[in-house]
Amino acid sequence: MDAENLIDTGLAGDFDDDFEPFDPAGDTSLPGERYLDRELSWLAFNQRVLELAEDPTTPVLERANFLAIFASNLDEFFMVRVAGLKRRILTGLAIPTNVGRAPQDVLADISAKAHELQERHAAAYAELVRPALAESGIHIVRWDELEDAERSNLRDYFSRQIFPVLMPLAVDPAHPFPYISGLSLNLSVRVRNSKTGKQEFARLKVPQMLPRFLKIPHDPGAERFITLEDLIANHLGDLFPGMEILEHHVFRVTRNEDVEVDEDETENLIKALEKELLRRRFGPPIRLEVTDDMDDVTLGLLVRELDVTDNEVYRLPAPLDLGGLFDIAKIDRPDLHYPTHVPTTSARLQPLEPNSRPDIFSAIARGDVLLHHPYESFATSVQAFIEQAAADPHVLAIKQTLYRTSGDSPIVEALIDAAESGKQVLALVEIKARFDEQANISWARKLEKAGVHVVYGLVGLKTHCKLALVIREEKGELKHYSHIGTGNYNPKTSRIYEDLGLLTDDDQVGKDLTRLFNELSGYAIEKKFKRLLVAPLHLRKGLLRHIATETQNALDGKPARIRIKVNSMVDEAIIDALYRASNAGVPVDIWVRGICSLMPGVPGMSENIRVRSILGRYLEHSRIFSFLNGGDPHVFIGSADMMHRNLDRRVEALVRLTEQEHLDEIAGLFDRAMDERTSSWWLGDDGVWVRHHLDEDGALLVDMQNTLMHEIGSRKRPGRNR
């Protein structure tokens, strides 16, 4: 799998591999069946991605990108979530579900919905996006549509650039059925020996290092492409000389690629993880995709050799693996993409004098800075903060958590520079970040070689919080400068992920982070904090306490309101508390990107709860928790979603915002998101998401992301003439 593509697309779903038991009958004041199935809810999220690809008002290369995102999302869903469910069933482990269904029924429902969505996905490409690309001069053609001159050029290209790297593998008594790597494209080939008349089977892997869509030389003004597998399929005679080609079809296998390491039973986590990463390649198959023209003999062979069930077979029209459309989506045609957006430097971080050099520390000292990426630049804020700290002779220490970043990241280079200049540098690297494990191990070792103190978190917990702490000497005293964010320290994804971050010199936040970092590099998370809510011990309890306060205020006739923005809403205790708040009369707004197990608008349970989802050019990734608190709002931002893993098995941190300007900004975001004039998806009491993007006259509703892009981009530093 191309993990970088998956991460860069950003719309990959959140997968909870936690199956801890929960008794939904524990609260007898609420109905027994009060949760939506989280697997089907995730598939509904991916359907919303597909709807963006189907939308003719979306620029056509962005539609191709959304088709690719859908494909990558679904791959990960099968590799992690479906694989985990199947493994539990096969090993006899219990699978508690929050909707009380049998495990086999769970898998059957997933299979039915996944089949439906994959067929819709294929149809969206064939009937909507491919023709729309052609209308714009981008043609994805088949071999039989080529002109003679084009075929001649491609034959020459095949002979020189493709044929030498192909490896046909025969299947016969002397050659056992070959290993089929996960997510690779393969050609199944049946041939007949012209001398003996005997039929044989061979497998041909489509090389992954070659472009999936090959550009065909053509007249200026149009771009033409052919899939690599189509070109190879039409030159099989070169690979099997003297044999008659009877059948050839494309197939693809998805395997269980989840990683399991017993941290309590290993002395060296990195070595154990590296060993498990090798095993990942050989996980059992959980999905077989085949082209819909595959003959029964070939399909029967594949099903038997790969040991998959009929429900795990997906017959689809060619081409398979539309994740390859990422390459098409990168074509340099600005007229077919979203308009270019250049992030602005946060108004609070702009220098006081024109043309002067920005000073991040002075800007933070003037007041807390709330950052909103990608509308505001990550490079001129968070990255500049770390880089300035690394170069500043007054900075004594830098401490930072790193969950997902890239090996060539300026953040990593700045930490190396800081360590080499003699500063104390601590990097808490989460090497268990799924599908980034090997990359994180590699650059963690690079940090260690430079003298950075690298630690790998706590046994049994992932460190998911986004924290940076700088200790600076000023006038003989030590001062704390802190960053707490909702997104990873990754310059690449910061351009497409919507995230919030707080830069502050607040002494209490600095002391909280100092203690938290000490505990992360030590052995335990035990203490409570002043301005932070920290998982796994106190975050859920803190949020439940705030929800209970709003509930009681409503019962007492006082103003009350709850607003939450997350990627996933699954945790039953939080959902039940929100149901009780709704029953007490508290207006509850939930703004969720992906999974939502909460059922809104149900009389007697959740009629005061609204749920919205916004998808678009940016990945909505920030997490916000806002409580009216009797007129003294308590508003938190941070890294935690409302899932068992985040609240029980991860180190997460939320920080409370205190400046009125920031509270007003957060309130404005919720006002926009929940406004009926904003384009969004609404979750109904029947669990169905309905898109609202047109008004009664058929005009497009407001694109919130586009509006914020223009408004934030026009901000000026306070005090400047506008």
Automatic annotation (TrEMBL):
Gene3D superfamilies: Endonuclease Chain A, Polyphosphate kinase middle domain, Polyphosphate kinase N-terminal domain. One of its GO terms (biological process) is polyphosphate biosynthetic process. Keywords: ATP-binding, Kinase, Magnesium, Metal-binding, Nucleotide-binding, Phosphoprotein, Transferase. The keyword Nucleotide-binding applies. GO terms for molecular function: ATP binding; metal ion binding; polyphosphate kinase activity. It catalyses: [phosphate](n) + ATP = [phosphate](n+1) + ADP. The active site is at H464. An intermediate of this reaction is the autophosphorylated ppk in which a phosphate is covalently linked to a histidine residue through a N-P bond. ATP binds at N73, Y497, R593, H621. It comes from the Bacteria. One of its GO terms (cellular component) is polyphosphate kinase complex. Residues 150-328 form the Polyphosphate kinase middle domain. Its cofactor is Mg(2+). Its EC number is 2.7.4.1. Residues 359-524, 532-694 form the Polyphosphate kinase C-terminal domain. NCBIfam families: poly_P_kin (TIGR03705), PRK05443.1-1 (NF003917), PRK05443.1-2 (NF003918), PRK05443.2-2 (NF003921), PRK05443.2-3 (NF003922). Catalyzes the reversible transfer of the terminal phosphate of ATP to form a long-chain polyphosphate (polyP). This is Polyphosphate kinase. The gene is ppk.
